[in-house]
Specification:
about 40% helix, 3 helices, globular, about 90 residues, two-stranded antiparallel ribbon
Amino acid sequence: MPSKRKKAAALKYRPEQDSAPKITAKGTGLIAEKIIDIARKHGVPVKDDPDLVEVLSRLDLDEEIPPELYVIVAELLAFIYSLNRKKGSN
């Protein structure tokens, strides 16, 4: 039975410059682990969502997410903003 390799994708969104979030990193296996490790070391929230990562990993680097993903990514951004607000109130 093949082992399930970890996948990761990183998004960047600058509302003042981007019309939609863009893929800034993606990978599987050791690369995925490195992406997650770097994110955590820099205080970037990490969300475990295998279905979303599967779709995002099909996009090219620096590609904007397609409109079909706006709702799910908006939910992800709301989650991150919520974490940031909680951190700021401490």
